[in-house]
Amino acid sequence: MLPDHQFLRIPGPSPIPPSVQRAMNQPMIGHRDQETKHLLHSIQPALKPIFGTKQNVLIMSGSGTASLESAVVNAVHPGDKVLVIVTGAFGDRFVQICAEYQIAINRHDVEWGEAVEPGAIKDYLKNHPGIKAVFATFCETSTGVLNPIQELGQIIRQHSDALFIVDGVSCVGGVEVKMDAWAIDILISGSQKALMLPPGLTFAAVSERAWKVIEKNDRPSFYLDLTKYRDQLENDTTPFTPAVSLLFGLKQMLELIEQEGLEEAFARHRQMMNMTRSAFRSLGIPLLTSDKAASPTTTAIRPDDFDPDILRNVLKKEFNLTVAGGQKHLKSKIFRIGHMGYCSPADILQTISIIEVALRKIGKQVELGSGTRAAQEILLSGGS
Amino acid sequence: MLPDHQFLRIPGPSPIPPSVQRAMNQPMIGHRDQETKHLLHSIQPALKPIFGTKQNVLIMSGSGTASLESAVVNAVHPGDKVLVIVTGAFGDRFVQICAEYQIAINRHDVEWGEAVEPGAIKDYLKNHPGIKAVFATFCETSTGVLNPIQELGQIIRQHSDALFIVDGVSCVGGVEVKMDAWAIDILISGSQKALMLPPGLTFAAVSERAWKVIEKNDRPSFYLDLTKYRDQLENDTTPFTPAVSLLFGLKQMLELIEQEGLEEAFARHRQMMNMTRSAFRSLGIPLLTSDKAASPTTTAIRPDDFDPDILRNVLKKEFNLTVAGGQKHLKSKIFRIGHMGYCSPADILQTISIIEVALRKIGKQVELGSGTRAAQEILLSGGS
């Protein structure tokens, strides 16, 4: 096998573009120097449209979970009733965080692999007044489901006074989101998914409505205190030493998104999703999600006649191609392909054609090239 | 001025070695893959001696403050009485964090520029039984003071049952520390100082005694919950997606420390301190701290006949040499030179000789070369 040749097709971390790598190679600078101020200042105008907001996008150093927790500790008062929509492992993470903080949790569970039904949330909110916040996962990484955030936002605003808090870690940058227009109050993301950076930065954009709630909250917090980040960002700085090399990369990543165009990036992600789904359909291997619930950034496949972990082992060992397995009760039942960030339709053709070979190696009698051809047809038709 | 040529001599972030930069350029890998497990596994044996401990060194993604806060939320129960030794801005940060968390704070203030007197802490502990934790800053970045942590550890263990919690962010890797032998219970550090990495990783090593306290603490925390990091590290993984590119760098940084030798690295830092101090003495420009209180990683200079910020401006504009100013009430009264991490005695000669030129440019009549000569003499004598 050719050394130093690898394919990372998991739902994050995702591959790093060469120009982002080069940008991160800049010599270190002082975090309180003018250079860092200029950097932070120049980042905001390009970052806001990706979140679909006029608000500043707060930048914290840490994992995505740090931002998820910051939303909980800043925007939910002790004793508040909240509704957590759980469509997979990351919805469950919101539950775990809320459970730490003496919050009255109502959980709305949806079968893994399905998206939440907005009508059910409407009914719930009508029958349960006094919900202070609704938590939802935009793309549920564990299943490849994209939840209908736009409709949820409308319903929540119409039928409650709850804040709408959205985990967009595994899709912001890869799918359209209009935080302000869709009535999202806190939108979280992370650097290592569709945003084409290494892990280590996490983002939170906060609505005016949410700031009003946050300012009245006296729950203790220091590192995760969002007001500190907001106030310092107004002076183009951060409350704590930021991950400077990742900021260099962030700046360059924003250039790449500008070069491609945000709409074009969204279309590319939809196309990669359609190519992947069409390929497995053509191969006769079942998908976990319906077309309607499918995410443009991650596809979960649920084979009915082979062990996905055996396929993953062959892919890894013989091609250095990494795809993800299933989590929790879907462990050894599904495998997941990440097609987000620095990943193109051409990469999907390669991924599918490798998988076809590997399927034959594990004894699954597929017609070689049939999945690839299905993906090629989507590509030729421009279908996104 | 030669473009793309800069000198970063602040007390962190510090410059990045080329081989560490190259290491961070590796293609991204999955954070749950074997590669990451091997990486985390291989890091521990080399990291522990730097902290002087047999404990695992927990690795979090975030700023140093995240680890400082983790020590507070994990190891101090609500209502506990603590003693915070404040010798500058970072001692004060411990006070701010404790103040968020309903902790009964006793602060022991020391004049900025001086180290704490261990005898005073002994007396305090004798007269104030029931102190549950003592917080101290090892190197106080804001003044260039190195506090006598070894003696403090002895005194605290002898005269109390308090946990000893030490902020070693700006010196671990540059000065000797024996966490286990010195009776330190939690030792914190950060990636961007003597450890030669970009900011974005922070470290916490925890004693058996401290784990016993932590396990009984039910204060809410999720991202900063140290038991999560401990438990996952036993399986060579992390509870949340780590800053993978910085882990690549960390591994290479540890190789560099092994190549040099830890004792040799400590000696180099002492030598750089002695060279810097001798140079300013010879130039007749006062130092902020006494020899006894001086840190091997940072030197603060307190000029009595020129504005340090004017000097800093000339250094930045004409040489692209960055040194730090003063913080809080020492603003515009001192400047600080960082000599830590990827910085050699030869770099100190260059720094001093540039500063001599800049001093003449701002009208300070120093004898050119006299500071450099004093530093050279230290270097020739091998004095560390």
From TrEMBL, chains A, B:
Belongs to the class-V pyridoxal-phosphate-dependent aminotransferase family. The lineage of its organism: Bacteria, Bacillati, Bacillota, Bacilli, Bacillales. Signal peptide: none annotated. The modification N6-(pyridoxal phosphate)lysine is found at K193. This is Aspartate aminotransferase. GO terms for biological process: glycine biosynthetic process, by transamination of glyoxylate. The keyword Transferase applies. Gene3D superfamilies: Aspartate Aminotransferase, domain 1, Type I PLP-dependent aspartate aminotransferase-like (Major domain). Its cofactor is pyridoxal 5'-phosphate. It holds the Pfam family Aminotran_5. It comes from Lentibacillus halodurans. Keywords: Aminotransferase, Pyridoxal phosphate, Transferase. Substrate binds at R336.
